[in-house]
Amino acid sequence: MTIRPPAPSVRPGSATFRPAGRTDREGLVCPTRRALLASTVLGLTFAALPAFLHGAFAQDAAAPNATSPGTAPDAAKSAGAAAGEWRHGLSLLGSPKYPDGFKRFDYVNADAPKAGLLRLSVDGTFDSLNDIITRGTPAAGMQLVYDTLMSPALDEVATEYGLLAEAVSFPADFSSVTYRLRAEAKWHDGEPVTADDVVWSFEELIKNNPRQAYYYSHVKSVAKTGEREVTFTFDQAGNRELPQIVGQIRIMPKHWWTGTDASGRKRDISQTTLEVPLGSGPYKVKEVSPGRSISFERVADYWGKDLPVNVGTNNFDEQRYEYFRDSTVELEAFKGDQYDFRIETSAKDWATAYDFPAVKQGRVVLEEFPIRSSGSMQAFIPNLRRAKFQDQRVRRALNYALDFAGMNRTLFYDQYKRTTSFFQNTELASSGLPSGLELEILNSVKDKVPADVFTKPYENPPSGGEDVRRANLREAMKLLRAAGYDVKGGKLVNAQGEPFTIEFLLASPAFERVVLFYKPSLERLGITVTVRLVDTSQYINRLRARDYDMIITGWGQSLSPGNEQRDFWGSAAADQDGSSNYAGIKDPGIDELIEKVIYAKDRDELVAATHALDRVLLAHDYVIPSWTYPNIRTARWNRFGHPEKLPEYSFGFPDIWWWDEAKAAKTGGTR
């Protein structure tokens, strides 16, 4: 249930924000909370990809709620109600912070003005307004048009409150969940949102999106069980997160999608389209320039504007997303006041590119927001579906060849630290040697995991000066020779005389300098290195086809890992169309540990099981870990206000920010 920018927003599509779980110009994973659910195309992850992949439940992977660590979230307590009773919210970590009947979230400004145009940037292009399917490249921000059954709080972890649903109920064994819709919920054409819409939306989602079908594979059936009630029945009991994750499904209008367009042609949700869709959310599409820009206008009579989960949010009259195919042009456009807000993921640009007059005059504000718990692994990921990467010694050798200290100093202005966990900077990260409950869990799969996990903590190879680099390359060559390779004629070859080659598949020119720094060390080992820079469409197609040697991307995590771990590391996902198992991991020990994470009975068991999973993933050297940064670097034209105290686990942009007319007048941007 994760995932993964710094996820500012309850609603997705905040363009300069990067897709959940994606990596950006320096391989930084932007950790938002439930990227897997909302990223309706592949969870694709590169700089050229648009921001539509933001989850409707995007939020920072977070530290525990201060009121809930160690609380066993049993059915009777997990929402502050007895099992089977109707409840207003759901939490995996104890009782929800906000009681039934609460008026608004503590962190919002209930009196925030509704005004202004927010301009954001998106990398790449788009050719569709249908982001349910895996075809095409959907536009950013489409989820602004829709509602979900539940909505998260940005000052809690793994907690949701009713949006389309006014109440939710589930039995003590978590074998099903029933949602009751609000009678006042309606589409923008005035038609009510119905239980039939919910059933149809779920069925179409899993029919047209393999990744979602895999994620929701434990939903055995969905049925209308009352005038405004829908019940999801699961094929198993005991999975605490299943009642929550179905509440995050986007609900779409059955009557519109099964109708005809202006030309009389029957609509088809399985196909790409540029027809403006009908929604029920706080915004609707205003204007589309295919591949170049899309704008959304606030719905003045939005049915849910006064709900507790929406008070103080959706404050901009219009949100516009401008597309750029070149990151340098995109940055210069910001300097030229062509859009308002950006997240800077380049250490070099952060250090050198913001010394321009508007910054000195205070018209542009540079600010870093802390990532409370990044929970991410960003890495060079070899494709284990290719035989040359299947030997762990080869993968470890590639790690020895990476001169992180030199790269950090030369390219990144010493801003980064090396990543050492798949759950970096959270309590879920393994450390030291296993003990207690974690050791018990590892012993239960002892014959299926590397022996090193019991005796040796994971460490990346040392990194430092020239002597260290040379020693690392000697160790790398030793490992490669042990794996059956040798150097002949200056080329690393296997026993059959076949050369060892690596093609790095990239979708952003900004990654080239990273690979080019890595390349000489690999070549000193006799490895032939090529860099393949492709456009977004080619990259997506090759990722879908698993046609790559090495990519640079990653996985974001939340504090409450669950079903998405199957998608990341599970054997079944390795060959699943659209999964996030980029490495192609197939390991029975990891499969068992994933199930122990999913079926953990309480917080202590969840943490211990995740420690064990993390430790075993690291021990296999599936990836070459890259780097991490503790803050979100932002630049904005000084036209906006935000609550004085931001929520604990997100800086809330743009959802709880607003247009400040006085600041805009001084900055020179009244609109």
From TrEMBL:
It holds the Pfam family SBP_bac_5. One of its GO terms (cellular component) is outer membrane-bounded periplasmic space. This is Extracellular solute-binding protein. It is found in: Periplasm. Belongs to the bacterial solute-binding protein 5 family. Keywords: Signal. It comes from the Bacteria. Residues 1-24 are annotated as: Disordered. One of its GO terms (biological process) is microcin transport. It comes from Ancylobacter mangrovi.
